[in-house]
């Protein structure tokens, strides 16, 4: 239980950093909040993250926040394109993603 509480307390430091990166990339608050939650959960479970110190920990959190944001952005773009293609072609839409 002590380790759990320590991790939560330490993650609060990274919450603002991760959210600021996510909101900068995603622009939409709801998307940024969801991406930030995912990042914090990933960091919580990442044993390697807890072995790092200082700037290395910051770097890992930043990379993960950017990666999660790009993941959300990619899904958003694919969903938008899919909807538009379906709208243009109706039920005969053929989508090939490479």
Which properties best describe this structure?
mainly alpha, 4 helices, 0% strand
Structure, explained:
The chain is an all-alpha fold. It has one domain. It has four helices and no strands. Helix 1 packs antiparallel against helix 2, helix 1 crosses helix 4 and helix 2 crosses helix 4. 16% of the residues are buried.
In terms of structural class, how would the helical and strand content be classed?
mainly alpha
Overall, the morphology is elongated
What is the element string, with H for helices and E for strands?
A: HHHH
Helical stretch tally = 4
Q: Termini, distance in Å?
A: 45 Å
Mean pLDDT: 89
Largest sheet: none
Number of strands: 0
Question: How many domains would you count in the coordinates?
Answer: 1
Residue share in helix: over 70%
Which percent range describes the beta-strand content? Answer: under 5%
Contiguous runs where pLDDT drops below 50 for at least 5 residues: none
State Rg. 17 Å
Ordered list of secondary-structure elements with their pairings:
Elements: H1 2-26, H2 29-45, H3 47-51, H4 54-89
Helix pairs in contact: 1-2, 1-4, 2-4
Summarize it:
This protein is an all-alpha fold. The chain has 4 helices and no strands.
